[in-house]
What we know:
The protein contains 17 helices and 23 strands. By secondary structure, it is α/β, with parallel strands linked by helices.
Amino acid sequence: xxxxxxxxxxxxxxxxxxxxxxxxxxxxxxxxxxxxxxxxxxxxxxxxxxxxxxxxxxxxxxxxxxxxxxxxxxxxxxxxxxxxxxxxxxxxxxxxxxxxxxxxxxxxxxxxxxxxxxxxxxxxxxxxxxxxxxxxxxxxxxxxxxxxxxxxxxxxxxxxxxxxxxxxxxxxxxxxxxxxxxxxxxxxxxxxxxxxxxxxxxxxxxxxxxxxxxxxxxxxxxxxxxxxxxxxxxxxxxxxxxxxxxxxxxxxxxxxxxxxxxxxxxxxxxxxxxxxxxxxxxxxxxxxxxxxxxxxxxxxxxxxxxxxxxxxxxxxxxxxxxxxxxxxxxxxxxxxxxxxxxxxxxxxxxxxxxxxxxxxxxxxxxxxxxxxxxxxxxxxxxxxxxxxxxxxxxxxxxxxxxxxxxxxxxxxxxxxxxxxxxxxxxxxxxxxxxxxxxxxxxxxxxxxxxxxxxxxxxxxxxxxxxxxxxxxxxxxxxxxxxxxxxxxxxxxx
Length: 493
Ligand code: NAD
């Protein structure tokens, strides 16, 4: 066992909230953060009072005019400076990120940490989003004289953006929202997930040091729904950028409607993974195994719903079973561990409940399903086969290391099965050629489709169809998402 050597965590460290440029003590005490790998307490997070939630929104509102009027080049330069500082210091947060997320040390170092600075760096260069409309002559009419009509279309910041995020990749989820929002001239109130907010508070110290004016970036934390819900109904907040479950997304849409919140909703997924009759099964296996090995399936884009041509079914199941047996489940600090814990005991119970529902609904438990004898919240890599479209394990997002396999009889049938879902975030096609994968992929109701690959393009728009969300982010699409469109029009003589 090659255990990573990390600095011991100071579990008594006092974490604070950043509101209007001041680091303040929490108004409602603290709550425990538990390491999913060991079930031990790794720290105590601030519990913001509702008055502090309101203060944070008000501080962001007060800072808005100055930040909005700062040239985009200056705003982006600050994001670049923040990216540099994050890249320099993020390594010092390895133990904290690993400890509060429970991610394996390999996933912590390869995915959780580096993507934080990268998301800021993506917006270090200003982009000209203005557009001029083609002028056209207007004849004299009752509304005015003749002339040449022109218009210039510009992007304005939306205002105060509440960034409310999920627990799975705490730093990546927040930086992916804050960076484009800030580049566009919005101010932000960050509300990370209750389970693992500590490293994000530390990253905020780094971001603040980059030189953002007071109130431009604020962070509040809390153990339940109240802090986020307070932002959603705050009249000082103009937009909610949310990453989380579809169920909470629906609540936010309802609660935000009274104040007409602009919404960016990045919600749940149940990724279809179609394998055609001529596909390279081995290539697909590597992708599907990521459901087990990439943060124990706690990733919205995971290819959890495998739809394989009947002629390749046995080959796929045999090979997946063999791979599942080879993945080491164990201490997240062991560099040989592939499958670490899920985030909480409650979530493990939920995952186990889904596995039992699969068996009750008639699926075959091909492998896994058990609870390893370890102190944390582990679930064995699980493969359910002989699945049917209406089973709960096929229709619901499990967010754990569980793969469900269905058979199809041809491309049309595969597409029909893929689209028989409330979700449509990220799906995949593995086919004998990219051209065939392209033709199948374009028919899937999904915001993103990976063709013979799991890898997304970092600048491509990201977001969901159906219950998987509203809006798109990443690259220039992220700037669009955090802006209002304004048309300035005139009639020249
Ligand atoms: P969750 O919906 O339980 O919580 C997400 C956030 O919402 C947390 O910060 C939580 O405190 C807050 N919240 C809860 N109730 C609220 C309310 N009434 N008003 C305002 N805020 C509220 O999600 P989770 O368990 O943290 O994360 C898992 C989910 O996130 C999965 O469904 C996963 O697919 C989704 N996810 C989606 C993406 C994406 O980009 N589409 C990325 C990562 C995770």
